[in-house]
Amino acid sequence: MVAPKKGKNASAQSKPGRSLALILIAIVALTGGMFASGHTTPRLGIDLAGGTSITLRAVPEAGQESAINKTNMDTAVEIMNRRVNGLGVSEAEVQTQGDRNIIVNIPKGTNSKEARQQVGTTAKLYFRPVVATELSGANATGTPSASETGGASDKATDKATDEADKDKATDGDKASGTPSDSASASATSQGRAASDALKADPSPSATSSDGASPSPSASASGDDATAKLQQQYAALDCTDKGARAKAGDGAKPADSMVACGQNSQGQWQKYVLGPAAVDGTEVDEAEAVYNTQTAAGWTVTMKFTDKGSKKFADVTGKLAQNQSPQNQFAIVLDNEVVSDPYVSQALTGGSAEISGSFDQEEAQGLANMLSYGALPLTFKEDSVTTVTAALGGEQLKAGLIAGAIGLALVVIYLLLYYRGLSFIAVCSLLVSAGLTYVIMALLGPTIGFALNLPAVCGAIVAIGITADSFIVYFERVRDEIREGRTLRPAVERAWPRARRTILVSDFVSFLAAAVLFVVTVGKVQGFAFTLGLTTLLDVVVVFLFTKPLLTLMARRKFFASGHKWSGLDPKALGAKPPLRRTRRPSRPAAGPVDPKEA
After folding, report:
1. Would you list the DSSP string of 246-280?
2. What's the Cα-to-Cα distance from 375 to each of 59, 193, 278, 392, 428, rounded to whole Å?
3. Which backbone phi and psi does 585 adopt, to 5 degrees?
4. What backbone phi and psi angles, to 5 degrees, belong to 70?
5. Residues 549, 16: contact at Cβ < 8 Å?
6. 153 near 325, Cβ under 8 Å?
7. Alpha helices, DSSP H only, in 38-145?
8. With contact defined as beta carbons under 8 Å apart, do 280 and 372 qualify?
9. Sign (positive or negative) of CA dihedral 473, 475, 481, 487
10. Cα separation of 267 and 431, whole Å?
11. What residues have CB less than 8 Å from 17, skipping those under 6 apart?
């Protein structure tokens, strides 16, 4: 049993170059990936890079004061976190303050502006039938045009499968989102169609039979709600930001409402919309996709649940029997129309596509909100504060100076106490620092990791953890030399015991970091994450770099001969004389006893 074990150890001693080659390949690959990604520096958190701090206040709906509770506030925080993380904004913090306030800290970044627009957006989505529509404010004309009465808005369109057939929308067809000659008949015929629709269904209309500027009329029954809706529609000016914000306020899903939307020409249109036919919660999945087969560009594809698919098929089947604009349905997000495609037959495929003049950020933002759901509460911005990086920069400078002083003291101690062995320790520290930097730079674009002040503190603490591992191993080697062994056997015999100690120590550090990361929030998680990362890297460096490098150095005369500056001088360490084996005298073989001797 002894011989195979010895052979195994000899093999391990003779090939330390494999481990060094492995870690060298890893460093080169990670560094190449860092430069290839274009992110050569770690992302900085809000305390180092500056950013925006937003205070959101929960506002109850009429008669729903009890809705502001801990459960709904926690749900809102979770959804906001997912929205911001879905945009790839680094180190955004979302946390409650008091019983109805939420604080959102968004650092500077590519998508920080989009995140601010999204973070407090309720994202209540409904599909509503269009009753009437026209251009609003200064855009309106005395005689409705095809684009006005057709309610065409190129903000979004449905999925296109037959670009040549502009007057149809089937399961895969495109519902036109831009004005076209085939979208509707003349203004007069459209007004007549709208009037006919009102006779069949007493709802507000957008156009009169003589083609005059559309205005909702009260139903034959003189319904008060319809009359009120008529007044709201007549007074609505969608070019006024304040009026747009108030449009549809207080409307329930089962109510008709007025709303605003913008077309591809940047013109505002106002709408009268019927009760919600499909709820946004019945959208199962939403995704931003770049459509390379058509000129649609960036689109948002939606898949409905089974229940939503049935409702969507029912409502589009009914709308297909009407004239324009009553054959359109509006996709309404937070009381704003983002798309109003028309249909000619029921859409039964269970999916839809919103397309139009989206850029990539807009498409991803809309898909993000639809995917992660609506907030359970309505929020208003109480304050928006710009955070400068000046204070954080000063603290970072002080922290880096403290880290440099600590590192210098560690190196001085190693030089004085371990002498030549300090070369191995310093090289290992440099490798660990390099790996830490490269991985932090790569984690920024991949998982949104951002370096903040507590994370810097975690990296500084890791210097001590890494140095401790070297000291454990060096002292084990010295113990073996004190026992009278030469350097090369001492290096190999010391490794198993040192390895166990290092693993136990690093496991305890990593466990502490993991627990701290789970039970804390905000910037403290940055400290825990960095501490855990550097602890794992310590194991990698000790196993793949420190130990193999010491094995190679043990073959060099400077170390093997026990030079007084090597840190492994047997005399300075008080080594015992070399171990020698002595044989015990063998006992005589057992046999019969001579009676005379007895």
Report:
1. HTTTT--TTS-EEEEEE-TTS-EEEEEE-S-SEEG
2. 12, 39, 18, 33, 50
3. -65, 135
4. -60, -40
5. yes
6. no
7. 46-49, 70-86, 112-119
8. no
9. positive
10. 59
11. 548, 552
Strands (E), 360-458: 378-387
Show the CA angle centred on residue 274, arms to residues 338 and 127, nearest 5°: 40
Taking each continuous run of H as one helix and of E as one strand, the counts in the chain are: 19, 13
Separation of alpha carbons 580 and 574, rounded Å: 18
Pairing of strands 283-291, 93-97: unpaired
Torsion of the alpha carbons at 483, 484, 486 and 491, rounded to the nearest 10: 0
**Rounded-to-integer distance, Cα 504 and Cα 500, Å:** 6
Other Cβ atoms closer than 10 A to 402: 13
Contact 223, 248 (CB under 8 A): no
Half-sphere exposure of 450 (CA within 13 A, CB side): 26
Which letter does DSSP use for residue 177 in this model?
A: -
Other C-beta atoms closer than 10 Å to the C-beta of 480 total 21
Q: Are 88 and 450 in contact (CB under 8 A)?
A: no
Name the packing angle between helices 453-482 and 421-447 (round to 10°). Answer: 150
> How many other CB atoms are there within 10 angstroms of residue 370's CB atom?
22
Q: Is the dihedral of CA 324, 327, 333, 335 positive or negative?
A: positive
217: tokens are: 């009329």
Helix/strand/coil for 345: coil
Cis preceding linkage at 325, omega within 30:
yes
Task: Tell me how many degrees the CA angle 398-385-456 measures, rounded to the nearest 5.
Answer: 25
Q: How far apart are CA 331 and CA 337, in angstroms?
A: 6
Residue 2 to residue 10: CA distance in whole angstroms: 12
Give the whole-angstrom CA distance, residue 528 versus residue 543: 23
Query: In this predicted model, what pLDDT tens digit does every residue of 545-576 receive, in sequence order?
Result: 999 999 999 988 888 888 888 888 888 887 77
Residues in the chain with pLDDT values less than 70? 1-14, 62-63, 85-91, 109-118, 120-123, 137-223, 264, 294-296, 355-357, 369, 372-374, 389-392, 521-522, 577-598
Tokens of 350: 């269970």
Helices (H), 265-323: 306-319
The three-state secondary structure class of 373 is coil
Three-state secondary structure call for residue 382:
strand
User: For residue 173, which amino acid is it?
Assistant: D
Alpha helices in 373-389 (DSSP H): none
pLDDT computed for residue 53 by the predictor: 81
